[in-house]
């Protein structure tokens, strides 16, 4: 079965650490693809906020 897992965070390094911890549990042949996206949005107060997303598509062992 093919599944996806999404890691979304405003702190890029935290999302990356969580994604890497998840990938460490998988074997190389289970990973189908890894996609990364990032946006920056300005709040009404003028502060920039970044949101990052990592999407892992993988095969389950069953």
From TrEMBL:
Feature: compositional bias, Polar residues: 41-55
Lineage: superkingdom: Bacteria
Region (Disordered): 41-62
Protein name as it appears in the record: Sporulation protein Cse60
The species this protein was found in: Paenibacillus piri
Lineage: Bacteria, Bacillati, Bacillota, Bacilli, Bacillales
